[in-house]
Description:
mainly alpha, hpI Integrase, Chain A, three-stranded antiparallel β-sheet, 8 helices, 5 strands, globular
Amino acid sequence: MKFIKGHELEMLFLTAIDTGLRQGELFALTWKDIDFDNACINVNKTYKTVRNIDTGKYEGIIQTPKTNNSIRVVPIPTHLINKLKQYRLSQKKLKLKMANLYHDNNLVFCNEFGNHLDSSNILKKFKKILTAAGIENRKFHDLRHTYATRLFELDENPKTVQNLLGHSNISITLDTYTHVLDKMKEKVASKLNDLYVNMGVK
């Protein structure tokens, strides 16, 4: 958090950490998808780069998520709402500055010309931040894992975590976060022990 402060991609990283959206979902996100009044994001599409069979070139496409569960509503914490509002204002100023060079796709996260972000470029910048912060090499997807881990640490129900992450079934959530859930089991055992101590049971 300290090392992304003031970075050009600060809001992208913050939103990933605070909502658990996949990279493709973040890249496809438009301002229309953000409901500031109800403090939530409507996740309904994803962006990916594919190779055109005819030309051999790679091009970006917008798709609907693979499963119905991926189409979901994710709540936004208050501190992120305020930052997103400020970010939108700065983006509007950039549009005016770039004038005709800016392609207004109404994207929340885009390059200086208003176009979709490039995943390889984002990864390079992400790794530079990790190096500067002294954190071992991670993938962008690990920001999503951080979000889920925090939810479990806050004792959130696994079914709720599944819905927020957009997993197709609960087993994916449980299998992915087995290590976190094991720690939570230890926490439960400790709580039970404290309960019996308070009850005077030996």
